[in-house]
Amino acid sequence: MFITGIYLDGKTSKRHKVRLLAVNENEPITFIIDEEEQLNTDPISCETLFSLAFSQLKITPQLGNTPREISFGDNELFITEDNNGISQLIAIFSGSKSTSILHKLETNLSLVMIFTLATLAIVWASFVYGIPKLSETLAYQLPEFVTENSTSSLDLLDATLFDPSALDESRRQHIDLLFLPYIQAHARLKPKLLFRSGMGANAFALPGGEIVFTDKLVELAESDDELLAILFHELGHLEHKHMLRRMLQGSMVTLAVIFITGDVDTFDLITGLPTLLVDLSYSRQFEKEADRYALDQLDHFDLPLDSFAQIMQRLDRDKEKSNTSQRSKSDFFSTHPLTEQRILFVEQYKNELQAH
Amino acid sequence: MDTVSTEIEQAAVSSKGLLNFEFRGDGTEYFKIWIVNVLLTIVTFGIYSAWAKVRSNQYFYSNLYLNNSNFSYLADPKAILKSRIIAILAFIAFNVISNLNPIAGGVLLVLLLIAMPYFINKSLEFNHRMSAYANIQFRFKASYGQAAMVLFIWPLIGVLTLGILFPLAILKSNEYLVNNSAYGTSKFSFKATYKDYGMIFLTMIGIAIACALPIAAISYFIPEMSILSLLLMGCAYFAVIVYFVVSTSNLFYKSTSLLDHHFDANLTMSGLTKVILHNLFFTLITFGLYLPAAKVRVAKYMSSCLVMHAASDLEGFSAAEQENVSALGEEFGEVFDFA
After folding, report:
1. Which of A97, A279, B243, B335 is such that its CA lies 20 to 30 A from the CA of A214?
2. What is the pLDDT of residue A269?
3. Would you say B195 and B184 are in contact if contact means Cβ atoms under 8 Å apart?
């Protein structure tokens, strides 16, 4: 048998048309120069380049329909597009039809389909269950010093977004006093109440235990119970270590996407959007968890559950007033669940309580 | 076998003058390779990713043809795996230390910044060395100072001059990339001017203003159409980005030469937009399964826009001496996200 290809000596880029000739497993393989393609008509005028044993050749495994390379000697190379010829050559000398396992996997259509389904299932399961579960476990395992490092993030927020609170002293003292027993009940979370102004009605929990209420939120609330509902929601974020878990989940998602797509640089737009959507869906789950915690606590301390629904509605109306753009009907692109859903959840929670 | 010999014949005839780049890969074929890579990577908890990277790179290099000869990718997966493990361990150590002791973390960050030019040089060296055409490898050799200038100093000057010298920073980084590259013993050279890049930036500003004025007018006079203006803003942003990619790529190849051989590229905004929108649409509706085919489509489009004006046949290049080079720079760059 023979294989037509190109020989490159590894020293220059000069291409030589060459034929590889193999007779049987006991004879060496010869490479014959065939520049004018006269091998068939005038074999005597063709110069034999060299003869080599099969064991001296290193043949690249098949990869799609790409050309095969046989390397030997000092960086010398024989390139051919004749994949069948190479298979025959390997069959003569190693006695088997040894195509590589990878190539077999890649060309077997039903296997490829099974692989595709398996990959989709694994990716789906790890995004929905695996990553959240793993980060939850990690979050509770991590030593305290890793999680308590949020003073710097408060400093950063103070320098950029926040201004000092403008609430009058008596109002602040009133809230401090109102919250005191509940903060003491949560002493293990080391909560620390802070007031700031400089942005809309909002409240945050930082991983170190700082709970920030904005002035506008304090002004918006019309009863003490509404403020407590917010406090419990933020304590829920602390209790479940949400900030840390979201950070962990974010890096795991990024890592998974890098592994799956192979490289990141070319597809920032295409991989960026799904990554964002996954992150937002994790965020909404955390909000639901914090809502449930808030309702649990309200119930535990015999406070009206409706105060949670009331402050949610107030926040929603407040946002609508300050925001002229149309509100979306879906929560797909939002960090928090829709207000209607959160209020519905309060009703469901009440029904659950009655059922017990 | 006959097709092989006729192709070689064509190569001999057309080995002077205008030579085309061509990508002969196929989306379906690459999908199969990709899905096997992904699943093996998942079940080996990422260890296979080094092999996956090599196989995928091999597919793209081997299918890229110039003058009927293909490129090849030579990296050894084991070298990549080793460097990946070192880089990931360093990354974890860095995070743990900066959490334990923010001051030590800060010191490490400064050290990392100092080491960055070195790693970028190493990464380019590795990638060039592992790329070959006609059995001759590419080379890259740059000094620490050159890399540091391109990485820190020129961009800083660009920012300090309020962007006026930012085109110069891009010019300098391309000069660094091309002038330090070689094919075997032959060096590449890059010839573009500040004006070339300045014009691109001026045009970008022009497009932005031309789009911003009607958008602002719409949202001022018809506030109910704010959704529309948001949409238009997205389109304008997209147009500016596509213009930037098209014009800088074309300029990059036009300005690059290898000895007396010159390159040229004719990417168009409509061509690239079509490719991007097509890829985006199909990738989203197939939950990402179109990603490999999208990558093939980009490679096909880019190479179809690329030509080489050869002054003579391409057979006179010689290989440079062999040297060993590790993959560490490349993997460090990937993990710390700076290369």
Report:
1. A279
2. 60
3. no
